[in-house]
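Escalation from tier 1.

The customer reports that the assembly of three entities below gives different structure tokens on two consecutive runs. Tier 1 could not reproduce it. I'm attaching the input and our single run for tier 2 to review.
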Amino acid sequence: MKAAIIGAKILTGPEVSKLSLEELIYRAASAALKETGLAIGDVDQVAIASSDGLDGRAISSMVTAPSVGAYRKSIINSSSSGEHALALAALQIMAGRSRICLVANWAKPSEGPMREVDRLNMDPFFYRPLPLSRTELIGLQTEAMIAAAGADSVAELGTEPQTKGATDAAVVLILASDAVARRRKSPFTTIEGFGWACDSYWRGGDELATMPSLAKAASRAYRMAKIDDPASALDFVEAIDFTPLHLLMICRALGLCTDGNMKEFAGQLADKKTKIRINPSGGLAARDYDFASGLAAVATSHYRLVEGEKKARGLAHAASANAAQANSVFILEAA
Amino acid sequence: MTAEHPNAVIEHWDIIYTHDKGPIVTEFYERLAENKILGRHCPKCGRVLLPPRAFCDRDFADTDKWVEVGQKGVIETFTVVFQKFRGLPDPPYCIAYVRLDGADTSILNFVRVPGLVDAEAVRHKLKVGQKVKVVFAPKGERTGRITDFWFEPEV
Amino acid sequence: MARAVAVAGTGQTKYKSRYPELTQPDLLRTAIRRALEDARLTLDDIDAVVYAMAPDALTGVMHAERWLADASGAIDGKPVIRINTGGATGLSAVQAGYDHIASGAFDTVLICAAERTGESGDAQSILNRIWDPMFERALPLNTITMLAMQAVCFFQKYGTTEEDMAHVSVKRHKAALKNPYAHIQQDVTVEEVLRSRMIAYPIKLLDSCPSSSGAAAMVLTNGETIKRLNERPAWITGLGCAAETYWMGDRTGPKAEAYHADSPALAQSIQTSYAMAGLAAKDMQVAELYAPFSNIELHVIPEAGFASPYEVARRMREGAFDLDGEMPINPSGGVLCSNPIAATALIRGIEAANQVMGRAGDHQVKGVRNALATGIGGDHQFFASMIFSDRPRAGDDLS
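Tier 1 run:
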């Protein structure tokens, strides 16, 4: 039994900043249900990812639960990331414990000093006295990647940060078993494979640049989806690219290029002439929603697939935690 | 570290969040400044919800109109705090959920009752079902938070 | 068809106020090591990790699952997910672990939690920040006041008294003397409870859970694996979860679904577990029910179907829920005697599983075939429940 995505909604834009966080999430969840032709009563499970630090609410899931229709429903909260909430939802569907699951994740960075909040993610003994927020950590990672990728690749791509900062958004996905999805006669995608992994907290050297957790997450996902050669099996990738160099290293971890052909691949990336399309949506530049970026990459992939050819496959990459310490991969197929 | 905790790192978190109220909460506090208390009506279950909100979570539906509620009501449940917690007021104080006339749900606030010295006094002076009335802070002392009013027993 | 899931082993540390001698990662590792030993497995056998951690603020490191990734065994690219449902976190984490295996995606999963509530210094002040910022944050609400108000509702509806609460406290403190891990191991009398400091009427110091630090872990595995590990495993046969409205004021008045004395969502969660397991309340031989204050135990026992709410206080005094009573409740001493928040609901699962496996030591109930565990989080809002049995659920795939 596979999990399928039957609906998706990214609610963002300048108007959403005027809403309270609770109302923003509710509007996204309502819209997702409406557009999917469902009522809240059709949902039997809710999976969310709420970050207390980001939301400024010490158990954020308490006050946001009403917004996702949790009343008298089963709800689980994976605070580690939105993509983990998605993974849990998929596992529940595969275990037969849920027929239709609403997955939600959000960020309202306009409400708090996000980079100050980032620093609270660092342990108090060694890292916290240092000025380490997402900005500095990505900077450190970029430096490590420059060393790993080599001067030629860096020259092709540059290291310009791809986003000026995150914007407010709520992202909702509606999952169902593939049997339920098939009966509905509307386009849907199936989650063919997925995986997640985490690198060591103590960021340093090689691991920072090469992100072994991403390779492991991808390997799991490929195995599940029975993919031997991702460059042939996939039609596109939607990734969390903090810089163009990050995108190169992500492709390397995903097995789309090797150390041997990295310079050539970097050139193709720079010219947008890679064999499969990489970040056709524009990547993080088009969808930087901080904590909700990962689920947004999945939603973006889903949108692209339901509007395109059947059997096309996309890989959504999500990264979270300090300098992309945690990586997740979802392989979706248009049904 | 300190003399008391020589082996510890002392951390003091000080993060300032600016939580957007959104249109419903904004309206509520603007009316409160005029000494009016407004709830929101849910068209599905028909309840008048206080505190007001953009949607009814029971029906997962938008609330559709404002309803002004009365300024008298009953205590549905309460407690009296005797312990000092850091960052919270000096005890003793009473907080209660009060259902105001015209509202279907209760709203939390302080109940100012003198002489709450011990449990015995609590049992004498506070009861579920007790009638209370709203009292507003003087206009010059408003802060734009729910504590701009409180409850007092209706004698 | 879902795969059957069994508990291979559990591990706990002693619960106490502070753990100055161990850092958070080391505390976690201690419990994990014990669970692996109990399961006769190593970290290499673990396919995925579910990390239970409640309010970040209590640990003092946000998203500490990242800091603890190494200690939680998630090195070498093992998948790790963190769960946070307030007080229910530990049992929600077991449910997530169950789905990892029942789905067929993984075989062996480690669930773990470490907490140092005592070190935050201001647990109740932090817990003041859980409330809605628009209408409730300005008020001195925290978990004690919220459940003190529940007590007032219960008194109102069922006629229970502070003395009834005190009897619960006496029973649990006595039970904890037989649990070497329990934080508070101190016999108390009804008079001592009634004379103890009033915190928020009617809850007094000796009616309340402590602020505990400690760690706990559980290893779950599939049918094929458990066959070679353990002849007497605890199988997960039922799971349930339901959420109540966040708004406590909605739980009052004529249009409420139920007055705040009762929790229909808790009953719903437990009924779901019973239905999934094909069992009923009468089939349970023991229950570890989440109850951080003595009044809450009087409330949750009826929601689980073990007594009428009008009779529960009388039956409690008569010993019906003692270790040697008709329906033992919280023989570990319960949350009332140990509350390392993120781990607490996981401990309910651990204790229930240990009862089925015959590993509950001095507080073992005789002849346990089925055990119920519950966890409660949020403002009496998230209710997780689980049933452990001495045989797998009928129809589950044993591969």
